[in-house]
Design the sequence.
């Protein structure tokens, strides 16, 4: 029997279709170890060889990777949730109930989306903590730290905009508390320092722009939905690209100079 | 105590509870490696550390294997978590019914807690901006070339203690207080207290100028302005006094100015907390446009 499978495997590996997809063999040779990374679009983010400590989990804590993984989880579960969710005040809450009781694995999907998002916030904080403690922001990696802070802020904003979407008491009031800060913004809020002097009123200040109204209402739901599903994920994805690219360009993982 | 269990049991607060062992574990892990490296450096064996850093290994399979195992472990944890615990869903949104207390999402509760000590324009706008800008400024302010790429404590005492103070003692601690110890009316409740919505708290807060018997608002304006200006001028004086110290000389006046400003802004929070707890001070500087 094993001989039969070996034969099958060997003839499969020789087909033009297979060879067109995977350009190298599987023999464990140094050359193939290089090619395994170089020839793979997902793995080629890595250098082919890394400093020894780069593979130590006690050094990296794997936190950047975990953050990225959790982002991918939220992206996949988020797209699936979008099939069942309508961002209008009439339907949003009912769709949550629909997900919970009618959609197969709907509750599991929503749980996974939420817990991955919470996990992402923790992982990104731990990643920052690790990068700080190893001094990895020092030259030549200064700018990548700045990109990292942008990613951290975007992660929080993504989580915050998503918080409103269930359209229940928890979400509407949490977002009310959060966005109330905008009316106290200096110059741009109607209760902020010098805001009224500049003509800021409840219906034309920064908070109004954010909410699409004078209180958290249906227009806010739509705004936060678009920000949550389109703008911030794209923004984050772009800066993730920059972040990863810069890791390579700035000399790979940091190590004792 | 049952109240505390209720808050801890809230599905959305699970991440905060998880953070305690996680941050404790990783701090210990970092500290352990930092002490080991410091000992190595103290013995004059820094080159050993460098040698190890120069040693190159194959990404495939040595790194990809770890990444893969890590991903599996996280997915298992996430799956179990998602099966065991349901995401919260309360009553439908009702703008006419304000819950007491109304709380922001857990990762912003540190900021909401800051509202006790500072007005919204500071706690909700200026300080978050300063935190973000301050974090971004770290690599440009920190001119210490040592400790680049390895754990150490001895070589970066100021940088690490400042960061850890801001992150743990301020940000995370405030998040915990905001989540677990703040009840109806944003009043303070000990974990064993029942959250009594009718709790009466005497409003005994006074502004700083009232301590000095200043009554007129114009005098109060100048007094508060003087105190705030003096506070930041102390930083400038400190720089002038220490300008020839190795630490400041290496950084130059612009970096020093930014560092001292950010540092004093950060320290103003614990200062104001202590003033509130001990002297019931509400505002330092009262003006018709803003209060600090």
Sequence:
């Amino acid at each position: 029997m094993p001989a039969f499978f070996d034969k099958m495997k060997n003839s499969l590996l020789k087909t033009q279709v297979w060879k067109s997809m995977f350009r190298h063999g599987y023999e464990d040779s140094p050359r193939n170890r290089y090619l395994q990374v170089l020839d793979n679009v997902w793995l080629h983010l890595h250098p082919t060889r890394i400093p020894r400590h780069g593979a130590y989990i006690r050094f990296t804590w794997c936190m950047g990777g975990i953050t990225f993984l959790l982002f991918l989880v939220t992206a996949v579960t988020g797209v699936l949730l979008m099939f069942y969710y309508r961002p209008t005040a009439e339907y949003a809450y009912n769709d949550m109930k629909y997900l919970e009781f009618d959609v197969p694995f709907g509750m599991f999907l929503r749980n996974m989306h939420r817990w991955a998002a919470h996990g992402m916030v923790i992982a990104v904080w731990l990643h920052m903590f690790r990068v700080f403690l190893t001094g990895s922001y020092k030259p030549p990696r200064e700018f990548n730290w700045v990109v990292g802070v942008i990613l951290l802020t975007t992660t929080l904003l993504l989580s915050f905009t998503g918080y409103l979407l269930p359209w229940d008491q928890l979400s509407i009031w949490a977002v009310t508390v959060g966005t109330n800060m905008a009316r106290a913004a200096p110059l741009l809020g109607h209760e902020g320092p010098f805001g009224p002097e500049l003509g800021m009123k409840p219906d034309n200040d920064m908070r109004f722009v954010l909410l699409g109204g004078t209180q958290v209402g249906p227009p806010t739901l739509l705004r936060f939905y678009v920000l949550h599903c389109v703008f911030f994920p794209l923004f984050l994805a772009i800066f993730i690209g920059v972040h990863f690219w810069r890791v390579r360009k700035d000399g790979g993982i940091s190590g004792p100079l | 105590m049952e109240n505390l269990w209720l808050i801890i049991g809230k599905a959305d607060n699970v991440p905060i509870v998880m953070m305690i062992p996680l941050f404790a574990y990783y701090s210990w892990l970092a500290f352990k490696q930092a002490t080991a490296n410091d000992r190595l450096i103290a013995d004059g064996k820094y080159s050993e550390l460098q040698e190890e850093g120069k040693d190159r290994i194959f990404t495939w399979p040595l790194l990809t294997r770890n990444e893969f195992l890590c991903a599996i472990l996280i997915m298992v944890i996430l799956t179990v978590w998602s099966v065991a615990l349901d995401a919260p869903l309360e009553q439908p949104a009702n703008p006419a019914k304000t819950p007491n207390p109304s709380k922001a999402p857990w990762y912003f509760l540190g900021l909401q807690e800051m509202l006790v000590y500072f007005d919204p324009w500071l706690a909700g706008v200026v300080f978050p901006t300063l935190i973000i800008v301050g974090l971004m400024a770290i690599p440009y302010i920190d001119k210490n070339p040592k400790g680049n790429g390895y754990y150490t404590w001895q070589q970066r005492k100021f940088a690490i203690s400042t960061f850890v103070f801001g992150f743990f003692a301020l940000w995370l601690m405030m998040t915990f207080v905001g989540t677990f110890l703040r009840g109806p009316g944003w009043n303070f409740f000990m974990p064993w207290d029942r959250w009594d919505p009718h709790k009466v708290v005497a409003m005994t807060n006074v502004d700083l100028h009232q301590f000095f018997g200043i009554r007129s608002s114009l005098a109060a304006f100048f007094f508060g302005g003087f105190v705030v200006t003096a506070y930041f001028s102390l930083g400038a004086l400190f720089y002038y006094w220490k300008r020839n110290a190795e630490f400041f000389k290496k950084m130059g006046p612009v970096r020093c100015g930014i560092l001292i400003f950010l540092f004093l802004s950060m320290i103003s929070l614990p200062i104001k907390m202590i003033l509130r707890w001990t002297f019931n001070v509400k505002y330092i500087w009262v003006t018709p446009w803003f209060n600090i």
Remarks:
- The longest strand of chain B covers residues 56-58.
- Residues 87 and 243 of chain B are 55 Å apart (CA to CA).
